[in-house]
Design goal:
mainly alpha; two-stranded antiparallel sheet; two-stranded antiparallel ribbon
Length: 359
């Protein structure tokens, strides 16, 4: 059996595993309005599901499978019909795959939703000093805080929808947010990124070089440059940020091919959602000629680590659950493991890139 055949079989399993995720009540995380939060099943409009939909759309883009397009269309039609939740950073995450879907279908109903949401992001999402998007989420306000997660959950949407709808002001805002977040979250000593910055405390909290947060950056920079026409000066700057990050990441890769949930703390557990994000970024960067053989080799090791953590039901194991801002490094080491849609999605992206490399 060829390598691509087994990769495709695992991708089929990952799709089934994603759609079959169930919230079994292990975590009780009510929203600010008192409603229950569902960050696990595929039936809720939240950030894990948004990232999951992104992976499914990218897989459809690669394979043009009718069943994937039907799954995406059915999911969005149902959610829009029953009414969307209030605006925040995390509830914006499904808007990126919806924008990608609208680019293909030109569904007028989707465009109305996208325009209204983009307008609200620009005018109603709370801002920090220097106009950063405050990381307001369904269950927390996070006053005067910026987090690296925001770039993936909000800013890629603005960049893509601004590009395909001809709204340059959205693309300009996306560029501003990437540069602002880079200013406060990028660690110049290592090239890695901190999880967050508090304008109130003037600090990076625990100075955690958190793996999945860094994966949002690796994936985010590469995909930003793919989905939006970015001025060359900004493009070159972001690529240098990416190079500095990746050079350190490769040095920190564990023997297994995975990365630890705190990148520079080998006593923290190996975490597979971040590993999948890094694997995707390394393989994609190598394929596009942005990275060298070192990227390719590390990416292939990461791919194998991810594949070894996909069970027979297509569920990605050893994925850390949703992670709030940590005030201590031990906080990150103690985050429980839980299969999630973002773990599934990042694995889908990684395996898809593995097929492209093999071809």
């Amino acid at each position: 059996m060829s390598s691509n055949t087994t990769l495709n079989a695992q991708l089929d399993a990952l799709i089934a595993g994603t759609l079959g995720l169930k919230d079994e009540g292990r975590f009780h995380e009510p929203n600010l309005d008192g409603t229950p939060g569902d960050y696990i099943s595929f039936n809720s409009w939240e950030w894990p599901q948004g990232v999951g939909l992104y992976g499914l759309f990218r897989l459809w883009e690669f394979t043009r499978r009718d069943d994937l397009l039907a799954t995406l269309t059915t999911w969005f039609d149902k959610q829009i019909a029953q009414g969307l939740p209030p605006l925040n950073v995390n509830t914006t995450a499904p808007m990126l795959p919806l924008s990608l879907l609208w680019q293909h279908t030109r569904n007028d109903n989707y465009q109305r939703v996208l325009d209204r949401w983009a307008n609200d992001v620009m005018t109603k999402l709370p801002r920090t000093p220097e106009q950063g998007f405050q990381h307001v989420v369904s269950d927390g306000v996070n006053q005067m805080e910026i987090w690296d997660d925001t770039l993936f959950m909000v800013v890629l949407f603005l960049a893509h929808y601004g590009t395909v709808s001809g709204r340059q002001e959205l693309v300009d805002e996306a560029v501003r947010q990437f540069l602002l977040h880079a200013r406060y979250l990028n660690d110049p000593k290592t090239g890695l990124w901190y999880h967050g910055w508090s304008f109130a405390q003037k600090s990076n909290f625990a100075q955690a070089r958190w793996a999945r947060g860094n994966a949002w950056i690796t994936v985010g920079i590469l995909d930003l440059l793919e989905i939006a026409p970015i001025d060359n000066g900004v493009r070159l700057y972001l690529l240098e940020c990416l190079n500095a990050q990746v050079n350190t990441l490769i040095d920190l890769q564990a023997e297994s091919g995975a990365w630890h949930t705190l990148l520079d703390h080998p006593d923290s557990y190996e975490e597979i959602s971040a590993t999948a994000g890094f694997g995707y970024g390394l393989l994609k960067g190598a394929r596009l000629g942005l990275g060298n053989e070192r990227w390719l080799s590390a990416g292939k090791k990461a791919l194998q680590a991810v594949r070894q953590n996909i069970d027979a039901q297509g569920t990605v194991q050893n994925v850390s659950y949703g992670t709030r801002m940590g005030r201590t490094l031990d906080f990150y080491k103690e985050i429980p493991l839980q299969p999630t849609a973002y773990g599934q999605s990042l694995a889908i992206l990684c395996l898809s890139e593995g097929i492209r490399i093999a071809e």
